[in-house]
């Protein structure tokens, strides 16, 4: 029984050895010439301005969570669409209920002003 899992174990061991070997090999042969320019922070092609400890509005996080929530809705619709004919009327009613619940949540968030970017 455990023999069926042996190829998976071998693959995991090879993957871990490859990752560890790559890190060790690059640290051994990599150039080590640090300079002020190389150690300077760099992001998105622009020089950073201000502190890295700047506080962000909670709106950024709220919008991100709502985006993830409604993305997950789309992820649940794909398997439903594939099995639509086999699920029949029960599947249609359940997906309709799912969409209604999400729509009520969307209206609630909209009325609370969480989607306003000001």
From TrEMBL:
Output the HAMAP family linked to this UniProt entry. Answer: NDH1_NuoA
Please name the top-level EC class of this enzyme: translocase
- Keyword Endoplasmic reticulum part of the UniProt annotation: no
Where does the record locate the signal sequence feature?
none
Give UniProt keywords alphabetically. Cell membrane, Membrane, NAD, Quinone, Translocase, Transmembrane, Transmembrane helix, Transport, Ubiquinone
Q: Gene3D superfamilies per the record?
A: NADH:ubiquinone/plastoquinone oxidoreductase, chain 3
Name of the molecule in the record: NADH-quinone oxidoreductase subunit A
Q: Where in the cell is it found?
A: Cell membrane; Membrane
Q: Does the keyword Transmembrane apply?
A: yes
The gene it comes from is: nuoA1
> Care to name a GO molecular-function term for this sequence?
NADH dehydrogenase (ubiquinone) activity
Which Enzyme Commission numbers does its entry carry?
7.1.1.-
Q: Output the Gene Ontology cellular-component terms.
A: NADH dehydrogenase complex; plasma membrane
Q: Give the lineage.
A: Bacteria, Pseudomonadati, Thermodesulfobacteriota, Desulfuromonadia, Geobacterales
Membrane disposition: Multi-pass membrane protein
Which positions, given as ranges, span the membrane?
Answer: 6-29, 60-81, 87-109
Q: Which reaction does it catalyse?
A: a quinone + NADH + 5 H(+)(in) = a quinol + NAD(+) + 4 H(+)(out)
> Where's it mainly located?
membrane
Oligomer and partners: NDH-1 is composed of 14 different subunits. Subunits NuoA, H, J, K, L, M, N constitute the membrane sector of the complex.
Write down the InterPro entries for this protein, in alphabetical order: NAD(P)H_OxRDtase_bac/plastid, NADH_UbQ/plastoQ_OxRdtase_su3, NDAH_ubi_oxred_su3_sf
The free-text function statement in the UniProt record for this protein reads: NDH-1 shuttles electrons from NADH, via FMN and iron-sulfur (Fe-S) centers, to quinones in the respiratory chain. The immediate electron acceptor for the enzyme in this species is believed to be ubiquinone. Couples the redox reaction to proton translocation (for every two electrons transferred, four hydrogen ions are translocated across the cytoplasmic membrane), and thus conserves the redox energy in a proton gradient.
Its family remark reads: Belongs to the complex I subunit 3 family.
